[in-house]
Amino acid sequence: KAKIMNIEITTKEYLDLLDILHLADVVMSGHRKGEDMRTERHRALIQKLYALARGEGLDQLIRYSEDTNKYALTDDYERSTLVHAVINEFGDHIFWDALIEKLSMRDAEQIVGGIDRLNAMSDSDRRTLEGPIRQRYIEEFTENGVSNLAIIERFSISGGMPAKTSD
What we know:
The protein is mostly helical. It is 57% helix and 5% strand. The chain has a two-stranded antiparallel ribbon. Helix 1 packs antiparallel against helix 2 and helix 4 packs across helix 6 (123-144). The protein starts with 10 loop residues before the first helix and ends in a 23-residue tail after the last helix.
């Protein structure tokens, strides 16, 4: 049997908890077309914690939808929270890191003659090779953003590789 925990928090702490829950929910589910079964228990806990707003004078922040049988944050909450600014900043950080990583690896791979040769390099040699490439991209994107990026289409017999997404 699961042990029951009693946690006492202030209304201000509950409002902070709402921000944390919303942040977690957006990260787990915001980019998905459907519900991910791996996060079902997390989403159930979020619903349980959202339900605590009822009767606490916070009904303007969370509403219950009879249609979906779920609690959802209201527009008033969405306008008052810092969560989306934090998510956007994090998304930008992830975007630039991933882009720089992929471009640096691609260029290093081309320089050494393929992924097998790149993977055969010692960690030290690989860092020595990729470091200046990565630094060049950091400088370029810091100065120009995506202004100088261009797509060079390369076609293969199969028509190319489709883009990979999380869904």
